[in-house]
Amino acid sequence: MADEMDNSIEFFRGADTALVTFSQGCFINQIRELAERFSEDVQILRVPEKNCGYLLARVPVRYIKIRPPMQMSQERRNRPGRIFATGTLMLPMAKARGFTLHLVKGIGCCQAGTQGAGTFSLRPVFLDAGPAILSPYFLWNRMTGIREEGKMEETKLKTVCFTGKRPKELFGYERGCYTELVDRLTQECIRLAGQGYGTFITGGAQGSDQLAFWAVDKAKRQGCKVCSTVFRPFENQENKWAKDGLFGQKEYWLMCRRADSVITCGGRLGPLEGMGAVVRCMNSRNHAMVDAADLVFGICRGDPWNGGCTGGTVECLKYAKVKGRKIFLLDPFTLEVRYIG
Q: What is the DSSP letter of 145?
């Protein structure tokens, strides 16, 4: 169960929806109530009973409002019939509550973490203006320019997630063996960005996950305007890895720093929990990535539906097929790409 009360809210420039993760009961109950009342808008992806105490959900960006704490006199605080909250984050219980539209210059996304009961500390990313309010109906999008009130142009950026094999089923831990594969992945990332894919999700694990992340990072350094995010299956995912070298802890920490956002899908595994718990968390993470994606990009050899590919990768691809996601398969040895569905 979640015992550190971690909470997070993640969304990208131009996105219509945000992913929220809550371990506190008050926010879990609020999201559940929203899902019941506005089922078309709010989707619960993981329930805390089956996700180590964490609720993972997708909510519209317009439901999220960020503002400084209210300043009021003690006399006003004591007035009956009014409730004043000290938190700086509000998830409205309805779509419209007469929020004022404000220009938010340069805010692409925000990360939140608890500092106490009910109080959030928010860190805006890409902030180059003074204090401002993030309206539920307005978002500054650097990729499309300023959206003026009354002249909003909705730009829906599609999402792709990656799944694939570990080093032992690829080329081991020799860095030079992966140059052609990373270059090929970079080409595919640039191509997909040109087709409207603006968010690239990777799982953070050794092997294909990290190779895909660095391919996205390379595409960004070449001028590709996309966002990268890492879905971790649980905290301290890298604890048993080597500290140095390819796919080591240092590279993992660097990856997390370079990512636009990092989402932890589960809590911290206990020392007595075995591989069964690890596999469950891995599969839960894979399902969360697929649920958030429009296209799933598999890095594996052979046909995953005829025994040519095994393990968590094929489980993820089968889940993607059930969910009706588009699927690309890249053979890491021949570098050939196949489109499925």
A: B
Coil, strand or helix at 320: helix
Residue type (1 letter), 119: T
Angle, alpha carbons 228-93-72 (nearest 5°): 100
Report in angstroms the alpha-carbon separations of 51 from 84, 225, 264, 277: 32, 33, 11, 11
Question: % helix / strand / coil in the chain, to the nearest 5?
Answer: 30, 25, 50
Eight-class DSSP state of 238: T
Q: Is 134 left (phi over 0), alpha (psi -120 to 50) or beta?
A: beta
CA distance 132 to 264: 28
Cβ 101 vs Cβ 137: under 8 Å? yes
Helix intervals (H) in 145-274: 179-194, 208-221, 249-258
pLDDT, position 1: 42
- Structure tokens, 96: 């419209």
CA distances from residue 60 to 32, 114, 130, 187, 254 in whole angstroms, order as listed: 14, 21, 25, 31, 30
Please give the residue that has the higher pLDDT: either 38 or 97.
Answer: 38
The model's pTM: 0.58
Band (67; pLDDT cuts 50, 70, 90): low
* DSSP one-letter string for 41-71: T-EEEE-GGGTTT-EEEEEEGGG-EE-PPP-
Residue 256, pLDDT above cutoff 50: yes
The three state secondary structure string of 273-293 is CCHHHHHHHHHHHHHHHHHHC
